[in-house]
């Protein structure tokens, strides 16, 4: 028992640290140091380069004739344009409706005014002869003109006007307003 008593006496003889003496290695200090290092890492780490998406090519306002408008029917990766009362709208964002296979596909690349006014999406609503004068919408009643105006307003809100539609031979003529 001498050994045990001797050992206890040695332990009792060791000075106990006073309350003012504390160690820096505490769990809270370890957590704070870790947070500091994490914030520091996020501040000095290399930033990834920002890559902006490619902008679509600029659209230039053009004068179209029925034959020059026809290729813009959405086939062969072409944009989808259609005309309403002499204004050409880029309806490419509505390709599901106006592009190939869509319910309004027959209007793509064409003057859709009469068909929209009559609420008919049949081929006979389109002018067959592309060299003929533009449809003056004669014979349409007030209800049909009101329907056409509603369609036109919808297109104005949703799509960009990219040009005007004129008859073949009128491309170079400027409108003279009195």
From TrEMBL:
GO cellular component: endoplasmic reticulum; membrane
InterPro entries per the UniProt record, alphabetical: Cyt_B5-like_heme/steroid-bd, Cyt_B5-like_heme/steroid_sf, MAPR/NEUFC/NENF-like
Cytochrome b5 heme-binding domain sequence ranges: 64-166
GO molecular function, one term: metal ion binding
Subcellular location: Endoplasmic reticulum
Residue ranges crossing the lipid bilayer per the database entry: 24-42
Superkingdom field: Eukaryota
Coiled coil: none
Keywords: Endoplasmic reticulum, Heme, Iron, Membrane, Metal-binding, Transmembrane, Transmembrane helix
Pfam families documented for this protein: Cyt-b5
Family (UniProt): Belongs to the cytochrome b5 family. MAPR subfamily.
Protein's name in the database: Putative damage response protein 1
């Amino acid at each position: 028992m001498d050994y045990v008593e001797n050992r206890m006496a040695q332990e009792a003889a060791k000075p106990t640290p006073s309350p003012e003496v504390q160690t820096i290695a505490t769990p809270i200090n370890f957590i704070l140091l870790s947070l500091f290092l994490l914030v520091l890492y996020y501040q000095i780490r290399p930033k990834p380069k920002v890559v902006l998406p490619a902008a679509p090519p600029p659209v230039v306002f053009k004068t179209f004739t029925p034959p020059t408008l026809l290729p813009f029917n959405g086939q062969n990766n072409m944009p989808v344009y259609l005309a309403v009362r002499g204004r050409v709208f880029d309806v490419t964002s509505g390709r599901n409706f106006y592009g190939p296979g869509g319910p309004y596909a027959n209007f793509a690349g064409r003057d859709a005014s009469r068909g929209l006014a009559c609420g008919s999406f049949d081929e006979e609503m389109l002018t067959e002869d592309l060299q003929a004068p533009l449809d003056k919408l004669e014979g349409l009643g007030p209800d049909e003109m009101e329907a056409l105006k509603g369609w036109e307003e919808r297109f104005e809100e949703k799509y960009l006007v990219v040009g005007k539609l004129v008859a073949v031979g009128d491309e170079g003529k400027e409108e003279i307003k009195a």
